[in-house]
Amino acid sequence: MTQDRDFEIFLATAPGQEDALCGEIRLKGFRQPRAVPGGVVIKGGWPEVYRANLWVRGANRILARIDTFRVVHLAQLDHRARLVPWASVLRPDIPFRVEASCTGSRIYHAGAAAERIENAIRKTLGAPCSPDAALIVRVRIDHDLCTISIDSSGELLHRRGHKQAVNRAPMRETMASLFLLQCGYDGTEPVFDPMCGSGTFVIEAAEIAARLNPGRSRHFAFELLANFDEPAWQKLRDVRSMRVPTAHYYGSDRDAGAITMSRANAERAGVTDYTTFQQTAISDIRPPCETPGLVILNPPYGTRIGDRKALLPLYRALGRTLASHFAGWRVGIITTEPGLAHATGLPFLPPTAPIPHGGLRVTLFQTAPLA
User: Fold this and answer.
1) What confidence tens digit (pLDDT) does each residue in 184-203 have?
2) Distance between CA atoms of 184 and 27, rounded to whole angstroms?
3) Selecting from 3.40.1390.10, 1.10.150.20, 3.40.50.150, 3.40.190.10, what CATH number does the domain 173-211+241-366 have?
4) Looking at the keywords, is ATP-binding present (predicted)?
């Protein structure tokens, strides 16, 4: 792999959100994104890897695919792995680790495959292997096709770098941003989360409106690579949006601690001027502004916090309040239980496909503007 040759870049997301992520990537100006199971593939070089990590909100991690070849046994993998131009991407002084998976292949032992790749890197480059290394080489052998990738992100991308306080059942920022997109949010309308927890939906909405880069407050694994272009990266990071949102973003919660968390997180994210959080019970919520927009929330689930039957009154109260006072607002509710969503009595559109989240499967239920 050379600096000027395009290669495949894989942006991973939760199964079921591939199309939403593809839409975001297209809006961000990347060339010919293609949704595939588990993510989106684009073509580009290392500048596109940098931009994707800095700009894209919905991806969990971004992999640079540096080589692909067919293998049918471990000796062949060992030989072929030594031909990979490791020195063009890895540094001999930076520890690495290898994570491998095998599906439908004659090489079926992931641990043995990872060991062969580790040995190839150590013997051809001399770099140390460490189980705690921040730099990960990912190996996927799928029906005898071996794809070797560098995990350019390091920590998962929902860790934006400016959110320290979280509640008991937080939604990842990456997933929240795609739910906002699926609800038709484009940064020009108010957003209200009446069960805001640590403020994820509200802060993501405000950042989108202000065109703040989601990766602006963190470091990435690609900064450890041999081909890292620090001047180019710094130039990219230094570009700041001057956009001032035309709408405002609101959160409420019955828990005073949640409001304190949300305000602190909004301050660290730099969106305090565009957000308002206040302590309010769900039966007392009212439209926070005159212009209708989007109500979006991630209420408690029966299988996650509390008992499902005990939550039915909460969902019913939510539905009554929204139906009575939020005419013109669209609603998006994320929950594991269709029965809980329908307990609101709201006129939902056909739901999206369930999406894995924290060991459960959640579904987005959304409405058209309420009458």
Assistant:
1) 999 999 999 999 999 999 99
2) 13
3) 3.40.50.150
4) no
